[in-house]
Amino acid sequence: MKVSQIEANGSPSEIVRSRHHWAVLLAGGDGTRLQRLTLKIAGDSRPKQFCSIFDGGSLLAQTRARLKSLFDVDRELFVVTRTHEPYYREELRNVHDSCIIQQPLNRGTGVAVPVAVLHILRHDTDAVVVLVPCDHYYSDADAFGRAISVALSAVEQYPASVVVLGAEAHYAEVEYGWIELGSAISNSGVPLLHVNRFLEKPSLRQAQELYRRGCLWNTFVTIGRASTFVDLLCSQVPEVILSINEALADNELEALYRMLPSVDLSSHVLAHQPHRLRAVADRTSGWAYLGSPRRVMDILARNNIQPAWLRDMNSLSDVFALSA
Q1: How many CB atoms neighbour CB 220 within 10 A?
Q2: How far apart are CA 149 and CA 4, in angstroms?
Q3: 267 with 273: CB under 8 angstroms?
Q4: Contact 66, 221 (CB under 8 A)
Q5: Judging by beta carbons within 10 Å of its beta carbon (0-12, 13-18, 19+), is residue 315 exposed, middle or buried?
Q6: How far is CA 312 from the centre of its chain?
Q7: pLDDT at position 313, please?
Q8: CA torsion sign, 102 to 106 to 107 to 109?
Q9: Up-side HSE of residue 277: CA atoms within 13 Å toward CB?
Q10: CA separation for the pair 145, 168 (Å, rounded)
Q11: How far is CA 186 from CA 87, 143, 199, in A?
Q12: What confidence tens digit (pLDDT) does each residue in 71-121 have?
């Protein structure tokens, strides 16, 4: 099976899809800021990743569809949280139990990621891992696939680095992470660049300056060798990864999760090691993070999307109430 790739000179080529490529679908978040909208759409307060915000299935289902041509089905790992089982049980009914990591509690990406990566390393010491959040929107799935292919190629060239996908910024957003770019490594159709700084949720003044300078939004789609992720995690949160490794060996994750603090991969790990990062500039996939009802309504309007639940709303006042 082959996926498209853009080489450093910008010309298309083909690479064989590797059994060492693993996708980690991060679907364990609580999504509390969107519960008012999910209540309107689904009739309950389910996390957004299990809600059909756009026609065509839940955000989780749409994430799986975007990855289908890139990874073997047994190389897709789902990280979920036990309390959400009523929402994902049916959706993951055909997924083998070995491909589902059911967290006892949500402790953030800085815990979910090492649990997934260490799990993968027990099966494949040469694994390359692609972290994919399940609460994002893309207007062009093919462009997303091309960016992933370039990132996978970059990891082969720079195995000690982690590659982050950065989306073109359209305004000075303070709720996103930002990537301050360094020099270009390649100037292909999907460029690869060094990273100078990695900032999470800057002030408005900082965001305005970052936007003016052409910095990228951090999509949190992150690619690297499993062993490199472990190395980065050990350098910043060693007690977390050592505790998780011991708990996995002793089958004691339940007790460990009750003790662990919440850890954020971007702010607690990646932001402290920009010299270990590379960035793929994804300027064409139309990425957006669904962080609030207002942002969802804006995405629907900008992309001329009118899902069934929006068509069924009784009045404009209902629309305005959701986007307030």
Answers
A1: 20
A2: 7
A3: no
A4: no
A5: exposed
A6: 31
A7: 74
A8: positive
A9: 26
A10: 16
A11: 42, 18, 23
A12: 999 999 999 999 999 999 999 999 999 999 999 999 999 999 999 999 999
For residue 287, give the nearest of 163, 173, 124 by alpha carbon. Answer: 173
How far apart (Å, rounded) are the C-alpha atoms in residues 75 and 169?
A: 31
Cα separation, 12 vs 282, whole angstroms? 16
What is the residue whose two structure tokens read 């207002």? Answer: 294
Please name the residue that has the structure tokens 């759409």.
41
Joined together, the tokens standing for residue 91 give 């959706």
Q: Any idea what DSSP says for residue 172?
A: -
- Taken as a whole, the chain contains a residue count of 324
Contact (Cβ atoms closer than 8 angstroms) between residue 194 and residue 278: yes
Give just the sign of the alpha carbon dihedral 106, 91, 69, 126. Answer: positive
Tell me if 179 sits within 8 A of 200, measured CB to CB: no
CA distances from 135 to 31, 87, 125, 235, 247 (A): 9, 14, 29, 28, 28
